[in-house]
Amino acid sequence: MTVIKRIAIIGAGTMGRMISLQIARHGFPVTLYDIQSEMLTDAKQAQRDYLAGWMSAGDITITDSETILARITLSSDLLEAVKDADLVIEAVPEQVDLKRKVFKQLDAVMREHAIIATNSSSIRVSLLEDATERPEQVANFHFYTPVWDSPMVEVGGGTQTSSDVLDALSEFAIAIGILPLRVQKESTGFIFNRVWRAIKREVLRVADSGVASFEDIDRAWMIKYGTHDLPPFAQMDRIGLDVVQAIEEHYARESGDPADLPPPILTEKVARGDLGQKTGCGFYTYPNPSYAQSDFLKPDKS
Ligand code: NAD
Question: How far, in Å, CA of 134 to CA of 219, rounded?
Fold first, then answer.
């Protein structure tokens, strides 16, 4: 079985920075690559902030924090970033053409035995596999956010992925403290994202059609299911509204049904640049969103 010892991540955005930190925390060297150097600078700062949070929670020491950071190499040179890797995880935006381009670039420079995995939220790897000369060594490897608080990853193959590769990915997931869930049959959105997609699609439509405010939908969710996790609109803000839109557009392209296109309540925000937590404004405004205030669920709210 392929032994995964050195890893590279392509794309240092919301997911790439978290996945690389999780990998480094579990003792593996990892290189984080992005085409935009400022994303690497942002990623490093975000990783320092996560580590500071773990230190103040008493989960790690300052020495642990330095050791973890030292395992992460930032790179703006694709060849340097991936040339020694046994596994490369692609985490660039959710567009089939872009991911195909990246898969092709990676295939040309990676070691022969190495695995190319995509962290795509919805795109089946069979739509990407023929961009490479190694279709038996490509896979879906889909993490959830925040990676350490949602410790599961969906592992699935395309039309030719070898079982050896899927086993190697599952074993690697376990080695970094993440539960692998095997996708037994290719499916757009894999396992849990299909369920989350049904929720997201409906809450967007309930709000877009004027039936209820997005805050009241989130209030109903929090009261019914508890407040320990983010309600749907807050969750979309955390994911990034541009990312949510790209995923919904992919589903709509696949189904060919215009009713699957994301509604204006979402697309108008994205067009304005209100992308959620990462820009400070999405459905809610940050850093002090109303859903996190103590009076959000109070019966006497005005
Ligand atoms: P993001 O927009 O935060 O980050 C994407 C990064 O990719 C950016 O830093 C960008 O500069 C970089 N990039 C763009 N083109 C590139 C290229 N050709 N080579 C190298 N880097 C390039 O996106 P994200 O939210 O991290 O999402 C990345 C992937 O992960 C998407 O497929 C998304 O669907 C999936 N995903 C996202 C979430 C989430 O909660 N945001 C969860 C699970 C999976």
Answer: 48
